[in-house]
Amino acid sequence: MVKRIFVLAFGILTSGILPGSPSAVFDKYFIDQTMRIDYYHSGNSQGELITLDRICRQGIWAGSRRNLTDPFNCGRYCIKVFDGASGQLVFSKGFDSYFGEYKTTAAAGQGLKRTYHESALIPFPRNTVRFTVEMRDRKNILRPLFSADINPKDIFINTESPAKGVKVFEIIRSGDPHEKVDVVFVAEGYTAAEEKKAEADGKRFADVLLGQEPYLSRRNLFNVSGIFKASDESGCDEPSHGIFKNTAVGATFDSLGSERYVLTEDNQSLRDIAAHVPYDTLFIMVNHKRYGGGGIYNLFSTFTTDNQWFEYLILHEFGHSFAGLGDEYYTSEVAYNEFYPAGVEPVEPNITALLDPNNLKWKQWITPGIAIPTPWEKEEFDRIDSAYQKIRREINSRIASMKRSGAPRAEVEQLEAESEKLSLENARKVDDFLRNSKFGGMTGACEGAGYASKGLFRPAVDCLMFTKGKKPFCKVCEEAVIRVIKYYAE
What we know:
Blueprint: H1 2-10, H2 24-29, E1 30-44, E2 47-58, E3 77-83, E4 89-95, H3 98-102, H4 106-109, E5 114-125, E6 129-136, E7 142-150, E8 167-172, E9 181-188, H5 195-209, E10 222-228, H6 267-274, E11 281-286, E12 293-296, E13 300-304, H7 310-323, H8 378-404, H9 409-435, E14 446-449, E15 452-458, H10 475-489
Parallel strand pairs: 9-10, 9-11, 11-13
Antiparallel strand pairs: 1-2, 1-5, 3-4, 3-6, 6-7, 8-10, 12-13, 14-15
Helix pairs in contact: 8-9
């Protein structure tokens, strides 16, 4: 039975919307509410499994009622929902996950199993459906990982009210959530006394996000809300600094062993708080001055609020979580091993292994006459940035050690200020270097991307997904973002 359903699924490419009746298929299979499916994702690099936790019935469906099946082919995983009676694919969505990143780490490679809590949001079905999770194999082909029949009339489906003590503030209201991109800022690490700061920060960052293309000219396609639940303490966890805080959703630096990577493993608290409003995409807005953030496709993005790179952070991390863009940098240390297997084309729209140079995935935007691969000034760039990265690692290690040992605050702050100054100086040096490249402003295939110096390529010499700073997306990244906006809002 499962095989038959999957065979049917691969032949169905659209949701079959009837002309003149955009919600006809939606109304046939769903009601205008949200089913939240919570589950545990466990394993290591050798294997993984999913077990159900609970199913919740929540507020209105935030997503499109017109576009129900995912056209992007992004993410390591994909949820698919099949009508129980006909086997027809009625909903799908690609995504990445915390576990999906964990399984590429050294610990997972050494066999250590870990468990992460995850949630899938789908429109609430009228009748029994088969819910499936697929995962990509090493050749990036989606394979079945988990499936379960879900009866929407099951007496154990949770209908309790959302978490208490939560306040919602509206920032931008452009229209019907079904026809807009619904963005939510979840305040993290703000105490009750900092509620006004949380509200002001939400408005400030909404302006940053929607102040840059391709969002600026499509501002009317976004609804933006802020959600506040007071944390007992201000800030967030910094394990390498010996600092732990009791906060609303448990955000922490040092995620997966990377000192600047900020994520949370408390998915249930995050989802319980976010359930107060309809949302397509989540920001965790972390009340902290230290540089840090993260973004996982169709999961959430995080950013710290009060450092000099706040504009870059929110825009870069949103590129990951909203549009599935990959990191284009490769000189910084990360926790991953073989994040992109050699000889396999990545699914991210802005990274390629260039296995077929004549059919580059972004060939429609290639600058006429440009060489593929593009012989940009890589050797000199590597010399400049690698030297800085070495100094940065040494300073960050010293700061962490000083904090753990209880060094005088003034000495720590002096070293932190030196680190910030060096970061700004290097960014300006890199910007000047790349701005003077003979390939500046062109679209080609520049080697160095996806944490790999060799074998992976990005579309342009520079881009918001490559280096820090206030700068635009390259053409390829911008078009990828536009496609997702249209999916939700047109």
